[in-house]
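Progress note, project year one: complex with fe (iii) ion.
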Amino acid sequence: MPDGFKIIPEYLSPAAQADLVETLRGIAAEAPFYRPVMPGNGQPFSVEMTNAGPLGWVSDRSGYRYQSTHPSTGTAWPSIPAGILAAWDELTGYPAAPECCLINLYRGEKARMGLHRDADEEVFDAPVLSFSLGDSATFRLGGASRRGPTKAVTLHSGTVLVMGGESRMAYHGISKVFSGTSRLLNGGGRLNLTLRRVTKPKP
Ligand code: MD3
Ligand code: FE
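Model obtained:
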């Protein structure tokens, strides 16, 4: 595994996972999941998304960007849950809070995320943190180039990934979600929270 990459299975206890799902239900009531489209061609994502935090990551025909409001309601994103902010401090040691908590919802066997890099941020010195909830999934981790080998890691509910150091800019994606492997979410599926620092912290 690349330098700075860490996988922490069972970081969230079953009780903490259930609590977090409840909190996310509240967030989704305020900021509903929506289906982004690809820049340019407008092809819909197979994953639904919403955000918490001062800046949300969005995609539409004009491009990828961070913005402070929900694209359909026009209101500010809800706050990042306190327990998630505490985990960021514990696991990253970064001297500023994360600004974006992107929440990805994978429903059905066809929901996937193609190989990509997280590169829309202004700063890359903070690690990216990911929390998996619900159905298990195959995560693929490549290197600095889109071509070349990838390693497959199964992510189970409660697993946290830390992508720091050289792994921060690595290509990655979700190639498969295994429906019916968890009963955490009503109606099944998988939720992923991705935490990122977007702007340079003010000294
Ligand atoms: C490795 N989400 O939202 S999280 C994303 O499970 C995203 O929904 C996937 O990739 C998901 O951008 C994977 C794990 C992840 C997130 C960011 C990374 C892995 C990463 C950044 C660098 C390297
Ligand atoms: Fe990503």
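Residues 14-30 form the longest helix (17 residues).
The pocket of MD3 (ligand 1) is lined by residues 102, 104, 113, 118, 128, 130, 161, 163, 167-168, 170, 172, 174, 192, 194 (CB under 6 Å).
No further modelling is planned for this target in the current period.
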